[in-house]
Input
Amino acid sequence: MAETPGPLFGQMLKDTSPRRAADFKPEHFRWEVDGKVATLTLNRPDRKNPITFESYAEMRDTFRALVYVEDVKSVVITGAGGNFSSGGDVHDIIGPLVAMDMPALLNFTRMTGDLVKAIRACPQFVIAAIDGICAGAGACVAMASDMRYASPEAMVLFLFNRVGLAGCDMGACAMLPRIVGQGRAAELLYTGRPLRADEGERWGFFNRVIGAETLIDDTKAFAAKIAAGPTFGNAMTKKMLDMEWNMGIEQFIEAEAQAQAICMQTNDFRRAYEAFVKKEKPVFEGD
Output
C-alpha cells in the first residue's frame, strides 16, 4: 500500500502560506474551531471510534497542515459517544494487513508513525480528552499529545501484544517510558493490560482526572488558556522538549540558550515586561 498524500496535504503542498483552520473540511472525523482552539473528534461512536486507513492519513495531513496555520493555537483531540478510540479497526485495517507483503506493511507502519511525528511537529499545543476506551493506535495518539485529561471511566490499553505484535508501535517504546517510566512502560507494553484513570494519574500518564460531564469543557478551557499565552514561546518549548531527547548537557544547554534568546526578541516578551511595569496582566498575541 503506497502512501499517497491526502487531499488536505495536496493543497498544503501547493500553497504553504498561512491558512485558516476553519477552512479544513475533513471527511473522516469532526473538526470544530472556537476562537484559537480547534477540536478534532473521532466520530464513529457505534464502533468506539476506530481508526481506519483514511482517518490515519487525514489526521496526519491535518497536523502537517497546522504548521502553516496562524489562527489556531491549541488542539483538543477527543472521541464521540463516551469513548476515545478503540484503535485500528479490526475489519478495515487488521484484516487487510494480514494479506499485505512487506513493502506494503512498511508503508502502513511508516504512515502511522508519521501521524505521531506530525502531532509532535505542529507548533500548536495538543491535549487529549479521554473518556472510556483508549486502545492501540488511539492510546498512541493520546501518548503523542502534549497533555492528557481523563474521565474516571478512561481506560488505556497498549494492546499490540494481544494481536501477536510487539509493543514498539508508533513510538511507544521511546515515548511511553518518558511519560510513565521504563518499568511501568514495560509492564503495559508486555501485558497489554488496562491502565485505568486513577492509576494513570498516579503514574503521570494523565495530567488530571475530571468528571465525564465536564471533561470536554474543562479540557477546552485549559486549551484556551494555553492559546491565550505566549504562543511563540510555547511552540518553542514544545520543539525543545522533543529536540533535547537526544542531546547531552553541552548540546541542550546551548540549544536552550539560543531558543530563549530568540524568544527574547518577540513582542510578547516586551508586552510582558511593559505589563509588569504597569502592574497589569499581559495580553499575548503570539508574535
Observations:
- The first helix runs from residue 7 to 14.
- The domain at 7-227 is CATH 3.90.226.10 (2-enoyl-CoA Hydratase; Chain A, domain 1).
- The CA atoms of residues 106 and 251 lie 33 Å apart.
